[in-house]
Amino acid sequence: MTSELDIFVGNTTLIDEDVYRLWLDGYSVSDAVALRVRSGILEQTGATAAVLQSDTMDHYRTFHMLERLLHAPPKLLHQLIFQIPPSRQALLIERYYAFDEAFVREVLGKKLSKGTKKDLDDISTKTGITLKSCRRQFDNFKRVFKVVEEMRGSLVDNIQQHFLLSDRLSRDYAAIVFFANNRFETGKKKLQYLSFGDFAFCAELMIQNWTLGAVGEAPTDPDSQVDDMDVDLDKEFLQDLKELKVLVADKDLLDLHKSLVCTTLRGKLTVFSEMEANFKNLSRGLVNVAAKLTHNKDVRDLFVDLVEKFVEPCRSDHWPLADVRLFLNQYSASVHSLDGFRHQALWDRYMGTLRGCLLRLYHD
Amino acid sequence: MPGKLKVKIVAGRHLPVMDRASDLTDAFVEVKFGNTTFKTDVYLKSLNPQWNSEWFKFEVDDEDLQDEPLQITVLDHDTYSANDAIGKVYIDIDPLLYSEAATVISGWFPIYDTIHGIRGEINVIVKVDLFNDLNRFRQSSCGVKFFCTTSIPKCYRAVIIHGFVEELVVNEDPEYQWIDRIRTPRASNEARQRLISLMSGELQRKIGLKVLEMRGNAVVGYLQCFDLEGESGLVVRAIGTACTLDKLSSPAAFLPACNSPSKEMKESPLVHPPSHGCRSTHNSPIHTATGSRLTQNFSVSVPTLIYTGMGSGSAGKEGGPFKALLRQQTQSALEQREFPFFTLTAFPPGFLVHVGGVVSARSVKLLDRIHNPDEPETRDAWWAEIRQEIKSHAKALGCHAVVGYSESTSICEEVCILSASGTAAVLNPRFLQDGTLEGCLEQRLEENLPVGCGFCHIPYDELNMPFPAHLTYCYNCRKQKVPDVLFTTIDLPTDATVVGKGCLIQARLCRLKKKAQAEANATAISNLLPFMEYEVHTQLMNKLKLKGMNALFGLRIQITVGENMLMGLASATGVYLAALPTPGGIQIAGKTPNDGSYEQHISHMQKKINDTIAKNKELYEINPPETSEELIGSPIPEPRQHSRLLRSQSESSDEVTELDLSHGKKDAFVLEIDDTDALEDVHSLLTDVPPPPGFYSCNTEIMPGINNWTSEIQMFTSVRVTRLSSLNLTNQALNKNFNDLCENLLKSLYFKLRSMIPCCLCHVNFTVSLPEDELIQVTVTAVAITFDKNQALQTTKTHVEKSLQRASTDNEELLQFPLELCSDSIPSHPFPPAKATSVDYSSFADRCSSWIELIKLKAQTIRRGSIKTTVTVEKASPMGEGNFRNRSAPPCANSTVGVVKMTPLSFIPGAKITKYLGIINMFFIRETTSLREEGGVSGFLHAFIAEVFAMVRAHVAALGGNAVVSYIMKQCVFMENPNKNQAQCLINVSGDAVVFVRESDLEVVSTQHPTANCQPLCAGGEVTT
User: Fold this and answer.
1) Which residue has the higher pLDDT, B476 or A144?
2) What total of structural domains would you count in chain A?
3) Cα–Cα distance, B311 to B384 (Å, whole number)
4) Which among B52, B124, B241, B918 is placed 20 to 30 Å from B315, CA to CA?
């Protein structure tokens, strides 16, 4: 005797959070049943394995039907087929769009194309996340990317509006979209120590300060014709960054800058001598990174460069984080006292963001 | 031209992409009513078109308004080829046709396609301007209200309950017309949907006319069914109870103090005059089948066994002059009716006087093509025959009426089993007649007669009992006789005194049958039926005893016919009625008592049974107050054999006493194990697992013993189809399979709903069908309701006490009617009771024709009688005109998708129904040619049922409602052909659209007090989802 057909349909759609998680994690029905058995649910409820199997199948079928709607969350809110309380709807959406740290680190900054999708097998093997779950996460990234890519206005707001995600998750997606659009390299070995959170933090700063959207954010003028785009870096700004080169190219300016920083920081840093010895290298590194950002390829290598040119040298000299903070503050501030340097605003826009990023990137 | 229908198409959303090139759709809408069609403009390139059309106006007869559905078709415009249909919406405009209901239909409707399912939504506004028609000979019956609810709807008062109305219409099934060979499946499905919609409209209108004729203004307990007879046609039939309802001006007065909305009527029942002490008693469905063959004796004791038609009919034993005493008043009130039947299952206080027992009749018929759809005489005659049978059974039980009446069919190829069942009862005449209206509302004070047991008292003559039964004096009032067991098809009367909680009891049975053709097949089925009835009853009885209970409510026995088997499924809610005697235990008797090991085995089993009984008593909290036998003293020295089930004649009473291990002084129910069959039976008794802790289940409206419901409800439908594997099946294996199927299904439900604990599954409704040779389909619809374990029941108690004081019964009035013997009430049955097991088919035709003649004869006499008793006093125009118009806007004005609750019950816990918006009666067909792609059969049906729910909710929301009560899925016919990757399903659902208001919203002030009280108690038990 075998059940050919076995369904349960409630007027209010039943959602089992545990099963939803298993489904999102990409487990097959039989794996999910096995996992549920292991959780001790049979003992708790006195149910049989057959009951569990039927229940799991049912939930999987429901999720499968809901998946189409989850691809466009506003549809889930307006559809009539499944009666789901709003709190549950929010939970379904939030969980569906949640992603694994391990996975996002693999994909962050990569082009969300078919080519990358083909590599998902490897990612799955490497991370231990099921291929199915990898696909879902990848497709989520790509879907959000496609929708907001060409959209005006705040990236986070757009994501929130079109995917009904929580503030936190929207910010994460904004970072993912921003990284994918600018194709920042994040996979190099020397960048492995960085978490998604580190990158997301940097992305947020960069979106706030370095994009076209950042310029147009005049609160009094919401209808301004300025291309209010959050996903692309401000090309003009990047072009202008070349002007900063004078800080290291002009020897006098560089020496003056160094002496200003050293005077102020003397006695305040535990690694003062190392700083003094390395100042020119560090400054050259930071300014050269800025100057190179006109080229797309160098933009992609931004994080590699920052780590190579700044994080690694400091780390090898065992700078404490507090010293890095003091140094960076002083380093950017003292430029204001350089009379021969005319690009103060540009410097601030650059260093303000970079300082934040570097501090976040500086850890083991 | 008595009506103007106005329709406006506002917008669409979520439309499917119809043009691959642009990924967009050029949609327009056709609005059709009758033969008139209007079109909107084409809204180019959008999946969310805004048509904002003008008002399309249809000037139509109200007859058409009732019959025709409004048909809205959404299409994709195509310049070069034919326009593609996206989908349709059928809107039943009936709710707009009577006052008090909806005034406008407005909202988003799912656009439905029979091949693709729901494809987007459309926003429509519909209005009707009705002109009053003074023509007396009109064909329409606008203004008659219809309710699926099988009790008096909550915000109404029954002025008169007129009685039974029925009608059927037949037509050719479009699926079987020649044209079906050349048209697309979509066209065929749509033709069918439209036809059924038309037929149900027509049916409703015709029933409405009958109601108007009876001077009623409403139909309560309206049940409409389809018989898909295949080649021979399509039958749509309906039954209901005509009433004159009065809208309660201040319904709040009826508001119960606690969260038990169904307990509204607490008045004590009308108690019969004490003078009829010689009345006798009733139906224990325990029966002594002494003969080797089932005999008439048996068939009367369980009056479900009599089936007419095929001529095998061992008809009810009329047994000479019938001597029940009936009040003349009642008699005349009911005699004018051809069938004194009531589809209600719950009644106004005082309506139900006595309950006799379950009466049922089945008939096996061979279908032939319906030649003339306008003259559905054959089908009418079939049903008339069965109803006549039911009526005579009721008479045999000393009852003049049948309540909780329902009819059903089971069809397989050209064989059809027609079934009808109900509960024989004696009713209080004052609700049935116009004349006695005045006394109805007067609340007369009178001496406190015992409450909660009156309906248990036997209505039949003790000295001339229709079957052997064990009578005792009522354990409640000690004055009247009661049977030891009571079976009924109705809900538990609200005033009944119950000990402990109730539970769902099911009897399940399969019988193999040889495949046969036509007449041979029908004969084979007829032969099997009595055995099935017998065994179903035995199982029910055993299980009832095992639960330590003594009464069944809501009994529904379904016999399903398939190619090579018959299935029987009986569901009921068992309770312990305080008025009835404590049930004895079950005793097991062995056939060969000398065998030591065998005896040991028997005693082991006996112990297990005793343990189970004890456990069940604890589980269901059955601890009746100890009543000493001496006090009551059985006045009728009944031989013990009467309460015993004998499986063979070889039994000697000595053996029984020898093995009397069980419940001491009580008369025990003896099961003799004389073969493996019996052994199986005993085993199967013990396999039923009780629901997990915190769960209760019943198939009645409410669970006896629980009335502190909280507001969370979850209605669901679950379907299982199982393929029987082995080819040479035995009855036992079949039984086990079927039993497992049902038990597993229940277990799954308990597991799925575990988050709602403590909760109760109410109105659990199982339907069995045999779609193919080796397939069994079980469909369950029920509602899970949470309740508060801790909250004390004091509120209800005080309520009962209060209502006791104002109990209104006009006993004096009743006493005045002279009691009279009515021996000539019905002519005795002309046919000698044939042996059930040997059917002479050849004589069938003769018998049948004479039988029909007899019915006609009877019908005539009854009609003649009705002329004498003239109906007088017309109180209110049945149309209700403007008096009742209460056009307050529905309170729910949520902008987002509003929540629509659905429940098979007639109430919503913790809420008050403020308005009935009209009946929902929808029929859908879904077909697929890509079964695998849609997730196989489960995926296909899951999606379809979800879509059906969605469409019901959308219609209710558009009417301005926020719930469907008395929801029922009447049909779910599923057919598959996996080889062709195809499947088709037909679903028919109905219910009442209502507006409800949460009680907490209603009386903010008054509820503050009680909630504050229970807060600390229910802190932990609250369920939040």
Assistant:
1) A144
2) 3
3) 15
4) B241
Give residue B238's identity as a one-letter amino acid code. Answer: A
Pick B716's closest partner by Cβ from A5, A9, A54: A9
Q: Which residue of B has its CA nearest to A76?
A: B897
Partners of residue A92 in chain B, C-beta under 8 Å: none
What phi, psi does A114 have (nearest 5°)?
A: -60, -35
Identify whether residues A64 and A119 lie together within a single domain: no
Asked if A321 and A275 sit in the same domain, the reply is yes
Distance from the B963 Cα atom to the nearest Cα atom in chain A, whole angstroms: 11
Q: Is residue A6 part of a domain?
A: no
Which of A25, A51, A85 is at the close of a domain? A85
B941 interaction partners in chain A (CB closer than 8 Å): 5, 7
Residues of A with CB under 8 A from a CB of B: 1-14, 45-48, 50-52, 54-55, 57-58, 61-62, 64-65, 75, 77-83, 85, 88
Flag whether A291 is in a domain: yes
Tokens 């305080």 belong to residue: B578
What domain range is A35 assigned to? Answer: 17-85
For the record, the structure tokens of B280 come out as: 């006798």
How far apart are the C-alpha atoms of A109 and A118, rounded to whole Å? 16
Q: Do β-strands B117-130 and B3-13 pair in parallel, antiparallel, or remain unpaired?
A: antiparallel
Own/partner contacts of B601-610, CB < 8 Å, gap of 24 or more, are: B602/B659, B602/B673, B603/B659, B603/B661, B605/B673, B605/B682, B606/B659, B606/B661, B606/B662, B607/B661, B608/B686, B609/B546, B609/B585, B609/B682, B609/B685, B609/B686, B610/B585, B610/B661, B610/B662, B610/B663
> Cβ of A61 and B942 within 8 Å?
yes
Q: Summarize pLDDT for B913-926 with one digit per residue, the tens.
A: 988 998 999 999 99
CA distances from A62 to A81, B715, B899 (A): 11, 16, 19
Question: Is A152 part of any domain?
Answer: yes
Q: Which residues of A touch B719 (CB under 8 A)?
A: 5-7
Question: Do B448 and B804 contact (CB within 8 A), yes or no?
Answer: yes
Of B722, B744, B896, the CB nearest to A50: B744
Assess if residue A227 is contained within a domain.
no
Indicate if A357 and A239 belong to the same structural domain. Answer: yes
Cα–Cα distance for residue pair B265/B251, rounded to 1 Å: 12
Contact assignment for A85 to B1025 by CB distance below 8 Å: yes
Cα gap B387→B407, rounded to integer Å: 9
Q: Which among A210, A243, A278 is the end of a domain?
A: A210
**Chain A residues with CB inside 8 Å of B954's CB?**
80
Judged by DSSP in three states, A106 sits in: helix
A136 and A38 in a single domain? The answer is no
- Contact residues, chain A, for B935 at CB < 8 Å: 61, 64
Q: Do B899 and A75 make contact, defined as CB atoms within 8 angstroms?
A: no
* Residues A247 and A357 both lie in one domain: yes
Cα dihedral across residues B972, B975, B976, B980: positive or negative: negative
User: Among residues B543, B805, B563, which one has the least CA distance to residue B690?
Assistant: B543
Q: What is the pLDDT of residues B401-419, one digit of tens each?
A: 899 999 999 998 888 899 9
Q: How confident is the model over B714-729, as a mean pLDDT?
A: 84
Q: Which residues of B291-328 are buried (b: 16+ CB within 10 A; e: fewer)?
A: eeebbbbbbbbbbbbbbbbbbbbbbbbbbeebbbbbbe
Q: Parallel, antiparallel, or unpaired for β B486-487 and B551-561? A: parallel
pTM of the predicted structure, to 2 decimals: 0.81
Q: Using CB atoms, which residue from B108, B121, B748 is nearest to A55?
A: B748
pLDDT at B684 over 80: no
- Same structural domain, A124 and A69: no
Question: Are A245 and A356 in the same domain?
Answer: yes
Angle formed at CA B380 by CA B376 and CA B384, multiple of 5 degrees:
170
